[in-house]
Design a protein that fits this description.
The protein is of the alpha+beta class and 155 residues long. It is built from five helices and four strands, in the order αααββααββ.
Length: 155
């Protein structure tokens, strides 16, 4: 069994055990914890450059997920927002396809929190978002963005 197939099977098992939205949220918390542990081990040596949104894109997609920039091309970028379209192999997409689960639910509940927590390491005012109209398998790509929001209010 190759690496990709192993990853798909692990996702199929996780999703089956999760049993729905609450379970996906528990998976999200575990994934967020793992990403933050990875960042604690690797963050200082990453040498990210550019605007906060560019650094967050680089951190999440290129450094953490190890994706090829050609598979996640940027379609818009300025100092406050970066938008890309993912067409990379996605084991979670494949797991959802095999099990008949809706990526619009699974990705929202399972993948947004871990992405958000990691990009906050670049700047706590960054926000990750995904278009649920432009998401695979309902589109040929997943359109996602990181934007710089207003600073969080302090008490």
């Amino acid at each position: 069994m190759d690496r990709r197939e192993g990853s798909v099977r692990r996702n199929v098992e996780r999703l089956a055990k999760a049993g729905g939205r609450e379970g996906y949220r528990r998976l999200a918390e575990e994934a967020a914890r793992k990403r933050l542990e990875w960042y604690e081990r690797n963050g200082e040596g990453l040498n990210l450059r550019g605007s906060a949104v560019r650094r967050a894109y680089e951190l999440l997609l290129i450094r953490y997920l190890g994706l090829d920039p050609e598979d996640v091309p940027v379609i818009y970028e300025d100092e406050e927002r970066i938008v890309w379209r993912s067409s990379n192999f996605c084991p979670l997409l494949e797991a959802c396809t095999r099990t008949g689960l809706d990526t619009r639910v699974v990705c929202r509940e399972y993948q947004e929190v871990p992405a958000q927590r990691l990009i906050e390491k670049v700047d706590p005012n960054l926000r990750f978002s995904r278009s649920y109209e432009k998401i695979r398998p309902y589109a040929s790509f997943c359109e996602e963005a990181i934007e710089l929001g207003k600073p969080k209010a302090t008490r």
